[in-house]
Amino acid sequence: MTQETSQKPEYIFVNYSVPRIHRWSTGRYMGKVYKEARDNKRLVTNRCPKCGELMWHPEPMCGRCKVDAGDDWVEMSDTGTVLQYTYLVVPMWDPHRGERWANPHPLATILLDNGCYIYHFLEERDSEKLASVKRVKAVWKEDGERGNGINDILYFRAIEE
Amino acid sequence: MANRVAIVGIGQTHHKSKRPDVSQPEMGNEAVRAALADADMPMRDVEAVVSTNMETFEGVFLPDHWMASQTGAYMKPGFKVNTGGTTGASGVEEAFNLVAAGLFDVVLVLGFEKQDQGDTTAAITTCATPVWGGGFATGAIGEFAKQALTYMENSGAKEEHAAMVRLKADRGACRNPHAHLRLGLNTVEEVLKSGYLVWPIRLLDFCPQSCGACALVLASEQAVKKITKKPVWIADMVTVHQLPFRAGIFGDLTGKDHYSQEIAAEKLYKRNGITNVIRDIDMAEIYEPSNWEEMNLYEHLRFCEKNEGWKMVEKNMTTIEGEFPVNPSGGVIATNPIGATPVIRIAEAALQVRGDAGEHQVTRDVKTALATALGGSNWSVLTLLKRSL
Question: Do B198 and A92 touch (CB under 8 A)?
Fold first, then answer.
């Protein structure tokens, strides 16, 4: 076999792209969230019988207390207070779906009125005005468009109180 | 009584954004050869191999299978570990446990990541379950953006302090021949000119995507005597995991949440009689995905009081020449081949204990060092290294 004499190395690559189709079970606990959101525009979760904390997301065991979390189901409020927010300055990948987001994609940690924290989008898209968004209420998708659990809420809209 | 375990071989590649010249197994093999050369040991003397890598980043879920010849695992026990950002340290902990339990005398750990073979942020799509909802995070950068906001609000730190952390890191990286980003930054203003990615995290506030590998050879006390005169003893390792959904993963404005690194540090210090961290430990290599998180970690790891991490930076306490050096290698914001990153933290801390860190050897005599790993939803692995037990 002859020796290579080229000064500039040639790098050879293999392009590899495999779309994968997945079908995840929502299960007994998150399945209830999906059903209530789709049918009744309600957020629900369960309460740990030991510490009394609302779980989010609902689960069969409380991680902190390590006990059966049971079926004490509670309707969560769909109004709350923005605890913290951020927004994209350059486009990023959606880590759940592999799609590019448009900017500014304002995201917030919201303290719902019955004590649960959730992450969700804000309707306000002007980064200058985001700081003034405090009290918010969920805006749900229309009938027939729901079926994606917590994503059945489009975003949270600023409200005056 | 568990067997004592020491690091007897340390090897790493040069870390870069792209390595088109090597395949993934070849890159891993570079670090394996370097660690075996450091231990002055033939591959056949390795009894078991632990590999650590974030396999979906490159898209092949059994990478260790395809590199058994390159790691020395052929016809020997081989293990694969993935715990998210902490992966490399979990691999070291598995090797440590295997040797401490008396199952093997010599175990090699290899951490590797070739991020030019895929899209890392897109690959993190495979980290979260789609059932819990889509789009409510902006990957790692978004989480650390929220941490930065919380830190600013709670501690009073300014963007200038975060920029000072990046300057410190860059000065270390420029003295570390293996580091990826060696930018030659001179002023805080240069850092503050870099654009925002996810507000308020700037490009220069965050870790890069690197290709690289790092290997360690661990040996039992019995085997150590035949291998090296400069063992670095693993005095202890502690792992703590957390829950995925909370008000803030890395910084919690409510003040109600527990951080895994605080719990892990409490356990580690208590078990090892450490009552004053910056007196009892001589330096640390910590896993800081952003410069903001570095200041936060100073507090969680009890290097200082709450809300005073930025003051350590302001006083230059954590520079290479400082009272308590942190990340003289340049840290994660200079070099981040994810599956290898926590192995590098332990490797760099071990080099400091041996006095073999070269240009980035710290001024303080290092008899005891701390290495940390951070990942997942605030998961932590801490490693305490000593020159003698």
Answer: yes
Domain count, chain B: 1
Residue B128: closest CA among chain A residues belongs to which residue? A96
Distance, first Cα to last Cα, chain B: 15
What does the angle CA B385 – CA B290 – CA B383 come to, to the nearest 5 degrees? 15
CB atoms A96 and B133 under 8 Å: yes
Q: What is the ipTM of this complex?
A: 0.87
Selected for mutation to probe chain B from A43, A85, A93 (highest B CB count within 10 Å) is: A93
Average pLDDT over residues A32-57: 94
Report the distance separating Cα B353 and Cα B73, nearest Å. 29
How many residue pairs from chains A and B have C-beta atoms closer than 8 A?
Answer: 128
- Option in B121, B134, B247 nearest A151 (CB): B134
A6: number of Cβ within 10 Å = 6
Q: For position B89, which CATH number holds?
A: 3.40.47.10
Pinpoint the residues of chain A covered by CATH 2.40.50: 77-161
The pLDDT value given to residue A31: 96
- Report the predicted TM-score, pTM, of the whole model to 2 decimal places: 0.94
CB A152 within 8 A of CB A38: yes
Outline where DSSP puts E strands in chain A: 43-46, 61-62, 67-68, 73-76, 79-86, 107-112, 117-121, 135-140, 153-158
Per CATH, the architecture of A77-161 is what? Beta Barrel (2.40)
Per-residue confidence (pLDDT) for residue A7, from 0 to 100? 81
Give the closest residue to B148 by CA, choosing from B70, B229, B251.
B251
CB contact under 8 A, A84 and B146: yes
SS3 label, residue B92: helix
pLDDT at B19: 97
CA B118 to chain centroid: 21
Helices (H), B259-337: 260-271, 277-280, 291-300, 309-314
Q: Inspect the interface and report whether the beta carbons of A84 and B130 lie closer than 8 Å.
A: no
**What is the model's pLDDT at position B136?**
64
Q: What are phi and psi of B229, to 5 degrees?
A: -95, -5
A contacts of B250 (beta carbons < 8 Å): none
**C-alpha–C-alpha distance, residues B341 and B85, integer Å:** 8
Domain that holds residue B221: 1-389
Q: Do B125 and A98 touch (CB under 8 A)?
A: yes
